[in-house]
């Protein structure tokens, strides 16, 4: 005996599963691609607290690095941009 989605099937004598499909074919209408997408996106909640935590931690790391090494970061940026600006930075 196997379970296939919402219908319970019993194996036939030859060992294959006989697919019978839904009982009421008229009641089961295929959904359009748009309605499937809207339903899928609407049901996806995501992990908002996790993303907020990641964003805050990243901002904290940037602020900490900037406080410790601001002069070196500015110097690295100026050295990297000088060839493109003709050394006038």
Q: What are the main properties of this structure?
A:
89 residues; mainly alpha; two-stranded antiparallel ribbon; 7% strand; elongated
* Unreliable spans: none
Q: Please identify the structural class as seen in this structure.
A: mainly alpha
- Rg from Cα: 30 Å
Helix-residue proportion = 40-55%
Rough outline: elongated
- Average predicted confidence as pLDDT: 76
Order of helices and strands: EEHH
- End-to-end separation in angstroms reads 76 Å
The total count of strands amounts to: 2
Strand coverage percent: 5-15%
Main beta sheet strand tally, sense and closure:
2 strands, antiparallel
> How many DSSP helices?
2
Order of strands side by side in the largest beta sheet?
1-2
Please describe what this structure looks like.
With 89 residues, the protein is mostly helical. It contains two helices and two strands, in the order ββαα. Strands 1-2 form a two-stranded antiparallel ribbon.
Summarize this structure briefly:
The protein is mostly helical and 89 residues long. It has helices at residues 33-43, 48-81; strands at residues 2-4, 7-9. It is elongated and about 80 Å long.
Compile the SSE list and pairings:
Elements: E1 2-4, E2 7-9, H1 33-43, H2 48-81
Antiparallel strand pairs: 1-2
